[in-house]
Amino acid sequence: MMEKIISSYVNKLTKSDITQFANSNNVSLSTEEVNIIYETIKRDWRELLYNPNRVFANLQTKVSADTYKNITYFYNLYSKKLHQLKDFH
């Protein structure tokens, strides 16, 4: 069930959504970083869900150090919440 919900969200995700999320969290992204993050989520969301190490290693070489730090911060924050929901049900 969780994968279906996430898949549906990812299918509807836009670059504008990424920009708006970043802006609402006072994170500055270049257009190139938005594109990289968008493509990574679209392509690798399942791997991000279960085993993100390769994806993060790849991202670290493509975005600024500050952007990478923000990506890992928000990933960890929301990953914990997602796993709490999973464990709750």
Q: What is the average per-residue confidence, as pLDDT, rounded to a whole number?
A: 91
Please work out how many helical segments DSSP would assign. 5
Number of DSSP strands? Answer: 0
Span between N and C termini? 10 Å
Helical amount: over 70%
Key words describing this protein structure:
0% strand, mainly alpha, 89 residues
Structure explained in plain terms:
The protein is mainly α and 89 residues long. The protein has helices at residues 2-12, 15-24, 31-50, 53-60, 65-88. The chain has a domain at 55-89. It is built from five helices and no strands. Helix 1 packs antiparallel against helix 3 (31-50) and helix 3 (31-50) runs antiparallel to helix 4.
What is this structure, in a nutshell?
By secondary structure, the protein is mainly alpha-helical. The chain is built from five helices and no strands. The chain is globular and about 35 Å long.
Give the SSE map:
Layout: H1 2-12, H2 15-24, H3 31-50, H4 53-60, H5 65-88
